[in-house]
UniProtKB/TrEMBL annotation, chain A:
Single GO BP term: L-histidine biosynthetic process
Protein name: Histidinol-phosphate aminotransferase
Enzyme Commission number(s) from the entry: 2.6.1.9
Pathway linked to the protein: Amino-acid biosynthesis; L-histidine biosynthesis; L-histidine from 5-phospho-alpha-D-ribose 1-diphosphate: step 7/9
NCBIfam families: hisC
A Pfam family reported for this protein in Swiss-Prot or TrEMBL: Aminotran_1_2
Organism in which the protein naturally occurs: Desulfatitalea alkaliphila
Family as reported in the entry's similarity comment: Belongs to the class-II pyridoxal-phosphate-dependent aminotransferase family. Histidinol-phosphate aminotransferase subfamily.
Catalytic reaction list: L-histidinol phosphate + 2-oxoglutarate = 3-(imidazol-4-yl)-2-oxopropyl phosphate + L-glutamate
Cofactor(s), by name: pyridoxal 5'-phosphate
Record note on quaternary structure: Homodimer.
Top EC class of this enzyme: transferase
UniProtKB/TrEMBL annotation, chain B:
Gene Ontology MF annotations: ATP binding
Phylogenetic placement of the source organism: Bacteria, Pseudomonadati, Thermodesulfobacteriota, Desulfobacteria, Desulfobacterales
Record-linked InterPro entries: HATPase_C_sf
Protein name: ATP-binding protein
Keyword annotations of the record: ATP-binding, Nucleotide-binding
Length: 370, 443
């Protein structure tokens, strides 16, 4: 018997350090001795799911849980297709966008291939590439945004996918339609271009592009969206991809079927396109963003605030330290060293009273430390 | 590190030939030069003949990324543990000979004494891997259009190493530490983590990396930028990537001592102070070269023992880092109680190439001051420029050393949360004649 099963792990995987998610809220509250914990760390929607989705979840019958869900989210794909005015064959659903990223990298990349993306963006593109044995080429951000010229400069014959998060998590920058189309033209079909629109519903700008409308002209374009953010269904883990029919067929080669549970499919069906919910969320986010950016600047802190339901604040001390001090006051933020922003925290935007409480807590932390 | 070979021996002349043969065979297995094997044999001979005959010893030889080490482990029971101090000398009136670790350590490039988890004493003798001295200079700086951030590979880190090696040569520092082959070996051995900036023409134009060194601390190097273009932006990117790369590793923090000063992103780090060399050996805590700390680990709280001799530094550091601590001050009256009644033992890691000694307290004792003096005298004799003492403030016996060290010119430069059983206080002392290239700013 081999006493060292770790030796079976490929050398490239052994260099990867596992990501450890934070402990459940009740553990943190016990550890820090607090009665209330406001989650400002994961960009969740504090308004929760739209009423229709909430009703769909409440209406789930326990006996239905004994039956497998649709293996390819058949009804949901049809619903999304109708909403986007595409064919159901152009839609793939997954257990959150993370799983869809894995489908796409598995479908297009083999040993020796590479992906190109920005260096301060959603880390899962890079992680999945690395543990799939695919090189992740990271180009520095320019003014906190993706630099299209740098990304193109590092493409080569083995580049299979370019990932653009639009708007970008965590910086909130976005490419307008002109920049996106110029990029797609320059790529010229040599690689797939993934535009991750996880936060697109938060953007209320006339020049923000709807990448799904470009699918007819760019068969190498794939667009990701999620129900975790504005639709408030993060706990159910569901997202989707839309692309050209042929590209979607290729992605389906590596798709895991039956990975989306029945509750998620039902809730997503009910949630999609609830414009009232989107407007309510946008209003809450806009108000909180206006207040928080002003308050952070008032505290003398640098702020990175673009689109999306989050804001980054720079601190004059370590972000891990800020996490500890703030959680003791009931506010959990995202430390940003792991996003390559040392000494920064990302704050999810919530209703004004929560933001005011957070600012008071942060002011107290700053006063004590500085 | 790849495990080479191991054997069980007994101290005394009887097993000496076996010990010599073992070291020779293991050395051959690791492709060591004859004179390097001889160095390890001499050190082994010194130990095996000096310990009480019949003492169980475990010998192992292992090749590391940049050094081959002979490790000798013994239980230490019934021995005069004071003899394991590097500065120990036999009393000429009462004994003819003794454990000559000082002599044994002279045969090799590096020596270390530690205690393992089972309380056994572990002696390590290291011989540096020889590197070719003819490192070609890097190509002159040329403009680039774009750069990207990559993880170092043994091949790519060598390009950065060429820059750093020639910088160290120019600064009259220790070029071996930055030798391209050494950095490549460390990278291949997963003992170097960091980031390189690669230009669109494939040249390496900047780097930043960490090497695990002292206990739970990472030694940080850089950022170094090898071009004149956008130096600050590139330095920030390199630092951000490197800190992210080590953020999930099991280390307490990064201590950066060598970097490009004109573009160093100080805003990400906590300044720690390094003493300057001076007539008293460098006690001027506030005026030395700045070194920089970045904490990585979360904090679970706990007791922190301290002495008034370093109280302002410790309190400031604890406040700055918001450490939830039960602060326990040791009065002079407490010192005797926590130091026990035997002889103290210092654990020493000596690196002759770096001219540096790293120490911590293996066993408290009543002779802390005399032992410290003896070690400092030994280091002066051996031309050691930098002494770094690590005190685990979770243990009161360690805190008892604070006044002893401060009186001898050590200055506290870093409080590393959770660096040991408790917090680790790092005190440094530069010798009067320390060369500017030793472990200071600039590669």
């Amino acid at each position: 018997m081999n006493p060292y099963p770790a030796m079976l792990v490929p050398p490239a995987i052994r260099t990867i350090d596992p990501y450890m998610p934070s402990k459940p809220d009740r553990h943190l509250m016990a550890a820090y001795g607090i009665d209330t914990l406001y989650r400002l760390n994961n960009n969740e929607n504090p308004l929760g799911p739209p009423p229709g989705a909430a009703a769909a979840i409440s209406g789930l019958r326990p006996e239905r849980m004994a039956i497998y869900p649709s293996g390819d989210a058949y009804d949901l794909r049809g619903h999304i297709a109708k909403f986007l005015d595409v064919s159901p064959d152009q839609v793939v659903c997954g257990n959150g966008a993370n799983e869809i990223i894995q489908f796409v990298i598995s479908a297009y990349c083999g040993p020796g291939d590479n992906i190109v993306t920005g260096d301060k963006t959603f880390a899962v593109y890079e992680w999945v590439a690395e543990f799939s044995g695919v090189e992740a080429r990271l180009t520095p951000m320019k003014d906190h945004g993706f630099d299209p010229d740098a990304m193109l400069a590092f493409m080569d014959g083995r580049t299979k996918i370019l990932f653009v998060c639009n708007p970008n998590n965590p910086t909130g920058t976005y490419w307008n339609g002109q920049t996106l189309e110029a990029f797609l033209r320059a790529v010229d079909g040599r690689a797939m271009v993934v535009v991750d629109e996880a936060y697109c519903e938060f953007v209320d700008r006339p020049d923000f592009p709807d990448a799904a409308t470009l699918l007819d002209r760019y068969p190498n374009l794939l667009v990701f969206r999620t129900f975790s953010k504005v639709y408030g269904l993060a706990g159910l883990r569901i997202g989707y991809l839309v692309g050209h029919r042929d590209a979607v067929y290729d992605v389906c080669r590596t798709r895991i079927v039956y990975s989306i549970n029945a509750a998620a499919q039902a809730a997503a069906m009910a949630a999609l396109g609830d414009t009232d919910h989107i407007h309510r969320t946008r209003e809450m986010v806009a108000d909180a963003k206006c207040y928080l950016t002003g308050a952070l600047k008032g505290l003398g802190l640098p702020v990175i605030a673009g689109e999306g339901n989050y804001v980054i604040g720079g601190l004059p001390f370590n972000d891990q330290l800020a996490y500890r001090r703030l959680i003791r006051r009931g506010y959990m933020v995202r430390t940003m060293t792991s996003f390559r922003f040392p000494n920064h925290i990302r704050i999810t935007l919530r209703r004004r009273p929560v933001m005011e409480g957070f600012v008071a807590a942060l002011a107290a932390v700053l006063e004590k430390i500085t | 590190m790849t495990l080479g070979s191991m054997c069980q021996l007994k101290a005394g002349l009887e097993d000496l030939p076996r010990a010599m043969a073992f070291v020779e065979t293991a050395g051959r297995h690791h492709a060591m030069a004859v004179d390097a094997v001889r160095k390890l044999q001499l050190a082994a001979e010194e130990v095996i003949t000096a310990l009480d005959p019949g003492t169980d010893l475990e010998f192992a030889v292992a090749a590391g990324a940049d050094r081959t080490r002979l490790t000798i482990t013994c239980h230490g029971r019934g021995m005069d543990l004071a003899a394991f101090n590097l500065a120990w000398r036999p009393d000429p009136e009462t004994m003819d000979t003794g454990l000559g670790l000082a002599l044994a350590s002279r045969y090799v490039d590096a020596f270390a004494l530690e205690a393992d988890a089972g309380g056994r004493l572990v002696l390590q003798f290291g011989v540096d891997t020889p590197y070719d001295g003819s490192v070609t200079p890097p190509p002159p700086a040329a403009p680039w259009r774009f750069y990207r951030l990559i993880r170092p590979t043994p091949q790519t880190i060598m390009a950065a190493g060429k820059h750093l090696y020639h910088r160290a040569l120019a600064a009259k520092g220790n070029p071996r530490a930055m030798h391209p082959d050494r950095l490549a070996a460390l990278t291949a051995g997963d003992a170097l983590f960091g980031t390189l900036a690669e230009a669109d023409d494939g040249r390496i134009v900047g780097c930043c990396f960490c090497i695990p060194r002292d206990r739970r601390l990472l030694d940080g190097f850089g950022p170094f930028v090898f071009t004149e273009q956008e130096r600050r932006r590139m330095a920030r990117d390199l630092a951000c990537h490197t800190l992210e790369r080590v953020a999930r590793k099991p280390y307490s923090g990064v201590l950066t001592t060598r970097y490009d000063g004109d573009c160093f992103p100080a805003e990400f780090f906590i300044p720690a102070r390094r003493p300057t060399a001076g007539p008293t050996g460098g006690g001027g805590a506030a005026t030395g070269t700045t070194v920089w700390h970045f904490p990585l680990a979360d904090d679970a709280g706990g007791p922190l023992h301290y002495h008034v001799a370093a109280e302002p530094f410790i309190r400031e550091a604890a406040t700055l880092q918001d450490l939830p601590r039960q602060m326990i001050r040791l009065s002079d009256a407490d010192l005797a109680a926590v130091t026990g009644d035997g002889a103290s033992v210092f654990s020493t890691a000596l690196d002759r190439g770096e001219r540096a000694a790293m120490l911590h307290l293996l066993m408290p004792g009543t002779d802390l001051a005399a032992n410290a003096d003896a070690h400092l005298a030994f280091f002066a004799q051996e031309e050691i420029a930098l002494c770094r003492f690590f005190l685990d403030l979770g243990r009161p016996g360690d805190a008892a050393l604070i006044p002893v060290l401060v009186e001898r010119g050590f200055a506290p430069c870093l409080l590393l949360p959770g660096g040991g059983r408790g917090d680790l206080l790092v005190l440094e002392r530069l010798s009067d004649a320390s060369a500017c290239g030793v472990a200071q700013g600039g590669a």
